[in-house]
């Protein structure tokens, strides 16, 4: 499966199959939440949240690819990511793009 954030793949003629997406909502446990809260007092990278968001993007991408494979796609073009806070310490991440088949 080819994944790109452009609306084309060089050398390929594409047939559009439609929108595909994958999402997840992730949160950290209360212990991590408290330690990351203390970190905001002194500043610096919130590594636990960074890790959480990386994992969330990977899972959302995996789910998007599974949806694309389910409709017979060879690639997903014009991939985008979006995130939003659901509640304190929890975030939704969505990956979406256009599933395409090579002609």
Automatic annotation (TrEMBL):
Family, as annotated: Belongs to the UPF0145 family.
Superkingdom, natural source: Bacteria
Name of the protein described by the UniProt record: UPF0145 protein H8699_01035
């Amino acid at each position: 499966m080819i994944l790109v954030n452009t609306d084309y793949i060089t050398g390929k003629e594409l047939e559009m199959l439609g929108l595909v997406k994958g999402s997840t909502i992730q949160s950290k446990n209360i212990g991590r939440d408290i330690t990351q809260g203390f970190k905001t007092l002194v500043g610096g990278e919130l590594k636990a949240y960074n890790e959480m968001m990386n994992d969330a993007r990977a899972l959302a991408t995996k789910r998007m690819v599974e949806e694309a494979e389910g409709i017979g796609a060879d690639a997903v073009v014009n991939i985008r990511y979006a995130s939003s806070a659901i509640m304190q310490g929890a975030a939704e991440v969505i990956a979406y793009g256009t599933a395409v088949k090579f002609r």
